[in-house]
Structures are given as structure tokens and as C-alpha cells.
Amino acid sequence: MKKNLLLTGLFxxxxxxxxxxxxxxxxxxxxxxxxxxxxxxxFLVFKPADSASATKHPLIIFLxxxxxxxxxxxxxxxxxxxxxxxxxxxxxxRFTYNGTTYSFYVLSPKKYPGGPNGSWDTYPVKxxxxxxxxxxxxxxxxxxxxxxxxGGGGTWNFSTESVFWTGQIAAAAPVxxxxxxxxxxxxxxxxxxxxxxxxxxxxxxxxxxxxATQHAKYLFNCTPALNPDIRYTFYVSxxxxxxxxxxxxxxxxxxxxxxxxxxxxxxxxxxxxxxNFTANPNLYEWFLSHSRxxxxxxxxxxxxxxxxxxxxxxxxxxxxxxxxxTISSYAWTKVSGPxxxxxxxxxxxxxxxxxxxxxxxxxxxxxxxxxxxxxxDDIQVTVLSANPSANAGADQVITLPTTTxxxxxxxxxxxxxxxxxxxxxxxxxxxxxxxxxxxxxxxxxxxxQQGTYVYTLxxxxxxxxxxxxxxxxVVNAASGNYYGLDSLQIMGRNVLVKRPTExxxxxxxxxxxxxxEIPQQNEYADSSAGVSRMFNSGTPKLLKNGVNVYPxxxxxxxxx
Length: 560
Hints:
Elements: H1 2-20, E1 27-33, E2 40-46, E3 57-63, H2 83-88, E4 94-97, E5 100-103, E6 105-109, H3 123-135, E7 138-148, H4 150-159, H5 163-166, E8 171-175, H6 186-193, E9 198-202, H7 211-219, E10 231-235, H8 239-247, E11 254-257, E12 275-278, H9 283-288, E13 299-301, E14 306-308, E15 312-316, E16 318-320, E17 327-336, E18 342-343, E19 350-354, E20 359-369, E21 374-383, E22 389-391, E23 396-399, E24 405-408, E25 410-412, E26 419-428, E27 434-435, E28 442-446, E29 451-461, E30 466-476, E31 482-490, E32 493-500, E33 511-513, E34 516-517, E35 531-534, E36 541-544, E37 547-550
Parallel strand pairs: 3-6, 3-7, 7-8, 9-10, 14-21, 23-30
Antiparallel strand pairs: 1-2, 2-6, 4-5, 11-12, 13-16, 15-19, 17-20, 18-19, 20-21, 22-25, 24-28, 26-29, 27-28, 29-30, 31-32, 32-34, 33-35, 35-36, 36-37
């Protein structure tokens, strides 16, 4: 029982200390599964005392030197006068710039032995950026990178790796860094992001020679010139550690510097190779004077949308870079469209596209500047139908005994084409009709009967392209004192029989005279034949002299 009480008491004693390690204003250890590398990334986290406020805070990412590679993650703070050393020794990390006071977060990843040539890879910095955005109330436009010695080389490496990643930080400060700039792309990356850099080195450094930073000074003599230019501070003395002892000092110290290389630019001179230099602003205040500038991507212009006829189009594009950058390449691609046309020169600002068919296309122009930044623009190309248009005329309605109609058609060529052929056909309707001139624009149709006809006109142009249109002709029954017309053969001739208007369904027992119309002039009807209709309830019959000539259809209507 006493043993349990002792353990409980010990736990209660340690609990405030365990909680205290992650309290604001203290530095504690953290680990994450690496997003951009392999395994875990271990690091120290410093949260400012006011980190719980709604205000977003700037962030410093610190890369340690070779002396801190051994041991556990807490050894990251082992270098005296380094930033995590200050954080472990009650520094507030609060600084004032332009009348506003800011509190820094600090993330210090741990590098373990290994890696290419023992150098810092860039993935821990990327992991820190991702972790900070997900877990801290960080101002993403005020993320700064610095490191000393081996970490200074890692700072140069990250700052010159790519426009995208360099564009994630607002400023960088390599301190007595190894010569680890990516020389082939350094100018284009830093120019493309306009990254502010302040580099520190002691001229008497016998661990990492001052030539490493002097190399950067001459490397960044870029064309076009960097904007802003890189700032260099070369301390006259101090050895290897003097660079970070002076550069990371939280006050406004004065030290002797070689003023001929105080700032970059070979023509700048401040009075000699050994003059007093006061760090006002200091590094932290200088950091705060810079916020991230979004990448100045070039603007692409693919031209105005076009409407064309098959089968080609000329695309005229252009690009505008943000000075001092210039456009270095063009690239056309098809985004969408009904087929795969050929882009004759996809890498030219102006190109021709062939093999277009009717439909809507979208083409995209991407321009790239000499910093590797890109911009895009799209153009819509509507390919109109090149087929001629046919016009079969207005729909018609005629009434028997009229059995003829005139079809008046026309055709219009497209893009300068002319109509060379006309062709009329009947698409639907009762039989017996005749098109008198089916190969003409205008024709007559004869022999029409009661019903609905559809006639189609097809026109063909001098390129062999065709277009069609249809016309509807409705033939109505004869009008007058009778309901309608039925067809009937009497004595081998076609005749029309009018039904009485007053009893169209033949339901009356009443007898009616038979009215016969002869459709053609030469037809003959024997009016003395005595043909009549007898309407009996339910059983109508067609009679001739009392003889049942045609039976009914069983539904109350005669069959003719």
C-alpha cells in the first residue's frame, strides 16, 4: 500500500513537469511521420508565450550544424548562441518591427548521421512547413529559414532548389554555410521568387572557409540582377562560431566587418575592410521586414475565341513575363474537342492546327519564363458546319378535289461554295403521287390523295457536300354540304363518294342520294345506275339496284 502511495505521489509530482514541457514559452520534442522523406522526422518545437492568442505568428525553421548530428533530438539546442539554444534558455523570441511586436514559433528538425555526403536534405524543411500549417497558428506568409555551418549549407540548398519550394518561405539566412547552392538553377530560382537572403561568415573561419559564402556572392551576380539583391556580412574575426554568435544575437551588436563585401554588389563600398557595423535591424527584425511574395508568374494570351470552317485554324499566342524575367518557351496543347487534330508547331507562339471537324475545341497555351514560372490561357475554336443549307419551302395544306401542289425549294452554299444539284424525294405519304421534276429546285407533285405527305429536298454544292430539308403537305377531304369523301370503284373507274354531313357515322335508317364525283375529266359515271346508300341501324350497306355490292367492315363503316 505504501509503495502504491509512493508511486502515485511521484506521478503527481512529475505531472506538472510533463505538462510544462509543452506549455507556451517552452521548447519541447516532437516527432512526425515524414511526408516528403522516409521514416520519422524528429524536431524541437518552441511556442511563444502568446501562442494561444488569435494572432497568427511568424515561424523560424532552424537547421543545426554537424556538431549536433550525434545524440538525441535535444542535442539540436547544443550549439551555444544558436536559436534553439536561446529558446531552451528562456528567450521570449519577441521582436518589434515598424511599431508592431511579433512572437516567433521556432521548429528545429534533427538530422541524424547519413544522407548524401552527410549534408542536409530538403525534405525536413518541407515536413516542418507542412506540420506548422497543420498544427500551429502560423502566418504562412512569414516563414523563415536559417541554419549554421552544415545547416547553413542546407539553407543554401533549400533556397535554390525550386521556384515552388523556395516560394514557400519569406526569407533565408545561411550562417557560415557550406557551399551547397544548386548552381545551375540558383539565379532562376531566387530571381523567380525574389527571395531575400542575408548570409553571414567570419573571414577567419578555419572550419568552413569564407570562400563558401564568397562563392555564393559571385554565383549570384545574375543577369538579370537579383531583386532584392543578397545581403552579405563578413565579420573580420570570430572563427567558425563567431558567425552565429554575432548573426543570431538578439540585440543590436556592433562588430568589425569587411565593408567592401558588407552588401552584395561589387561596386558597393562602405569605407574599408575593417569598419564597425551595427546590426540594426538585427536578423529577427530583418526577417519581419519581409513577407512572402507570391510567385510572379508570366501571363499567357492564347488570342480571342474563333469560329471557323473546316478544316484548319491559325492560333496566335503571346506571353508577358514580370520584369526582369523573359518568356523562354511556348507550348500548345488540345484540352478538348471531337477528334485529334494536328498542331503543326506546338512550341511556337503562332501555329496552325489542321484536321478540324465540326464541333467545339479548346486549345491551351502555356508560357514559361526564364525562371521556370508558367502561365496558361485557353482559346475556344468553334468549327462551323461547311455543308450547304437546303430550304424545302413552307408547309402546305390543300383540299380535294385539288390533287396537285408546287414544291419551291432553294439551297445556299457555305464559305463561297455554290449549289450544283437538287434532288426531291417523297419520304412518306399515300401512294399514287408523282414528282414531275425531282432534279429541279422547283417541281410539281400530282396525284395527291387525302392524307399527309412529306417531301425532302437535298442540295449538293460544288465540293460534294450536301444539306437537306423537308416540307409537309396535308391533303384534306373536300368541303361543302357533305361530311367527307370516300373512294369507290364503279364500272372499273375511280370515283369519290360524298358522305352526308348530317349523319357521318351512317347510323340513320334514312336513305340518301348517292353523289359521285369523277376526279379526272375523262372519268364516266352512270347517273342512271341507281346506286344509293341505305343506312340501317347497325348494318350499313352499299347497294346498287337493291344488290349488296360492298360489305361493311363490321364496325359500322362500309368497305369500299
